[in-house]
Amino acid sequence: MASVELKNLGKRYGHAVAVDDVSLTIGHGQLVCLLGPSGCGKTTTLRLLAGFVEPSAGEILVGGKVLSSPQRTVPPEGRNMSMIFQSYALWPHMTVAENVAYGLRIRKMDKATVDAKLKAILSTARLEALAERYPGELSGGQQQRVSLARALVVEPETLLLDEPLSNLDANLREEMRFEIRRLHDRYRYTTVYVTHDQSEAMTTADLIAVMNLGRIEQLGTPKEIYDAPHSAFVARFIGGSNILSGKALDAGHVAIGGGTLATTGRPLVAGETVTVSIRQHEIEISTAAPSAANMLHGVVGRQVFLGASRDYTVALDDGTELRVTASPMQDIAPGREVWLRLPAERCRALMGGNDT
Ligand code: ATP
Predict the structure, then answer these.
(1) Ligand 1 center to residue 18 CA distance, Å?
(2) How wide is the angle at C-alpha 166 spanned by C-alphas 123 and 225, nearest 5°?
(3) 3-state secondary structure (DSSP) of residue 239
(4) pTM of the model
């Protein structure tokens, strides 16, 4: 059964369109990430789901019941949803245990039930040893675990997360991604998770909806989105792709970047404009003369040593610039002539020609 359904959802502010005809079905117990750059409409979609904002068009259904439509919107307190914000919003005068139990107490549960539920969630969230501390005595990651525990303990029908890790430092963010996924595997609440961070989405999500200009540009598993981006926007946003534009010679070849490349993906029509994506680390760079098919000639613009890799910018013969991630051992000076091998199975012809 679909737990949450967005049907042709839209939100306008005057002439500005924040969310544009978004349809999305989230299965019971699934975790879906709304992923996209700043301003693409992901927070507005989440606020529509929470009931903080009324839609201009379309509907939101939970368990088959309409909760939002332009005619009627059930207020946040009438929805069985928990929302976690960027700031942890813990009560400073309450201990960890009191913060977590608060939602149970206001639901007037008896003491034995509250104690049992509290004990279970503190154990799962690894907070037992911190139960009597106050928020001011916790690290950022610990505070965010408390805010997760507080949201989970009330057993919401739907869990909404708005950039929950953005206030943490990089190491902690990485650790907490796994923590969120672990808690999700344990409780399986239907979850919508908003983030602009690709790795966060890849680690936590069952499905990723990549958003652009208020619309869902592509929906798929992390692997589908990574392996088979439909558009140049998705290819660029996920996993650092180069985008090249050229003319199709036949169903599987493109004149591009001053040479010819065999492509994968969709069959081409001779003469059409084709957009091809290839990831930076899938390109091989060499100063040796061409030895295989699918090679393009260029000149190194700049290179940066990054420890685990070396980052090159190479200008092709037609002026197109490509980014290449190479081994740190491979040290080629700026100005040197190079040959780039772009494996045919990695040169993906995108839908719709020149989309960006
Ligand atoms: P961010 O990651 O920066 O939070 P976002 O993808 O969550 O971005 P939204 O906050 O949903 O994007 O905003 C989508 C668009 O709607 C933006 O262009 C924003 O300026 C506009 N918008 C959002 N809220 C309002 C509002 N209350 N009034 C007018 N415009 C708004």
Answers:
(1) 6
(2) 95
(3) coil
(4) 0.85
Taking the centre of ligand 1 as the mean of its atom positions, its distance from the CA of residue 260, in whole angstroms, is 42
What percentage of the chain carries pLDDT values higher than 90?
A: 69
16 lines ligand 1 (CB under 6 A): yes
145 lines ligand 1 (CB under 6 A): no
CATH 2.40.50.140 in the chain, residues?
232-349
Q: Which among 102, 123, 126, 124 has a CA at the least distance from the CA of 114?
A: 102
Residue intervals of the chain classified under CATH 3.40.50.300 are 4-227
Candidates 3.40.630.30, 3.40.50.300, 3.90.400.10, 3.30.1330.10; CATH matching 4-227: 3.40.50.300
Structure confidence at residue 265 (pLDDT): 87
Ligand 1 centre distance from Cα of residue 34 (Å): 14
Q: For ligand 1, is residue 303 a contact (CB within 6 Å)?
A: no
pLDDT tens digit sequence for 138-172: 988 888 889 888 988 888 889 999 998 887 777 77
Architecture of domain 232-349: Beta Barrel (2.40)
Interval between CA 241 and ligand 1 midpoint (Å): 26
Residue pair 47/35 in contact (Cβ under 8 Å)? The answer is no
Q: What is the DSSP letter of 293?
A: S
